[in-house]
């Protein structure tokens, strides 16, 4: 889906996603000392706002102006400061950051590899990269998410692309989905750049 498609989707509801952070983002990052963070494909900003509330200096990047406007309003209502940046990740180079977050960004493989490579470069010494998204196994064993296998993650595939980073965690995780007995299956990869 292109930026206009996402703008339409974000305009259809008050919030497309929940106002709180993703469960895995919260669990993996709650103990990190705050610094500079960049949230790539931030959407309505739920993770960026949560990070800002914990003292992070956050840049939230997305190509949907509608989503970023919602994020601005949510951040203002919660009294936190986030830098909102309208940009296409196809060409965007993230700033050097103590935390680079990619949550549920599903792109064609060639574009995904470019975005991930630029994200890796942006991780500052001692910094963390966290990638969370729909796992390939979700197609047959889980629920929801993209139905194009080429856009789904595997823990091994993401971890193999993190040159220069030490992988701390790379695995499948399950996420309950309301109103369905099946869980969604996600990939979670956390890595750190040595100091």
Major sheet size, sense and barrel closure: 7 strands, mixed
Gross geometry: globular
Order of helices and strands: HHEHEHEEHEHHEE
Tell me the CATH superfamily. Vaccinia Virus protein VP39
**pLDDT averaged over residues:** 93
**Which percent bin holds the helix content?**
25-40%
Q: What percent of residues are in strands?
A: 25-35%
The CATH architecture is: 3-Layer(aba) Sandwich
Look at the structure and give the CATH class: Alpha Beta
SS-derived structural category: alpha/beta
Alpha-carbon Rg, integer: 16 Å
Describe the overall structure:
The structure is a single chain. Helix content is 32%, strand content 29%. The protein has 195 residues and is of the alpha/beta class. It has one domain: Vaccinia Virus protein VP39 (Rossmann fold, 3-Layer(aba) Sandwich), CATH 3.40.50.150. Strands 3-2-1-4-5-7-6 form a seven-stranded mixed β-sheet. Strand 2, helix 4 (65-78) and strand 3 (82-86) form a beta-alpha-beta unit. The N and C termini lie far apart (38 Å). The relative contact order is 0.15. The mean pLDDT is 93.
């Amino acid at each position: 889906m292109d930026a206009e498609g996402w703008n339409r989707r974000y305009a259809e509801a008050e919030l497309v996603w929940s106002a709180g952070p993703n469960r895995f983002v919260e669990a993996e990052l709650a103990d990190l000392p705050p610094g500079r963070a960049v949230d790539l494909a931030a959407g309505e900003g739920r993770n960026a706002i949560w990070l800002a509330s914990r003292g992070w200096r956050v840049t939230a990047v997305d190509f949907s102006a509608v989503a970023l406007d919602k994020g601005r309003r949510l951040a203002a209502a919660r009294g936190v400061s986030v830098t909102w940046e309208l940009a296409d990740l196809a060409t965007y180079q993230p700033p050097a950051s103590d935390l680079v977050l990619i949550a549920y960004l599903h792109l064609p493989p060639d574009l995904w590899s470019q975005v991930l490579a630029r994200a890796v470069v942006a991780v500052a010494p001692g910094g963390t990269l966290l990638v969370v998204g729909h796992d390939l196994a979700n197609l047959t064993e889980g629920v929801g998410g993209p139905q194009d296998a080429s856009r789904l993650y595997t823990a091994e595939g993401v971890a193999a692309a993190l040159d220069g980073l030490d992988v701390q965690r790379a695995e499948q995780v399950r996420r309950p989905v309301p109103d369905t007995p099946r869980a969604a299956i996600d990939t979670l990869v956390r890595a750190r750049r040595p100091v």
